[in-house]
Amino acid sequence: MSARTPVWAAILSTLALVARPSQAEEDPAVLKDLTAVIALQGQPCGQVVSATKQGDNDYIATCKDGSRYRVYVNEGRVIVQKQ
User: What does the alpha-carbon distance between residue 27 and residue 4 come to, in Å, rounded to a whole number?
Assistant: First the structure.
């Protein structure tokens, strides 16, 4: 398990507490954090330009290049799935 995984799980948990669903698309901090999480998982994205909160610790992130990823926490691990 990567040493960074618990850190990103904590970041996503914090984001879930402070970012309301309607603010996910507008909050630059959320977009920046999702960009970092996707990059740390080795997925091509560049920059997240919008995000929709699906639930606690669960986001659909849309990248500048048009690709979309689901970023969520499962059993304490951050999962990034290409959509």
Answer: 23
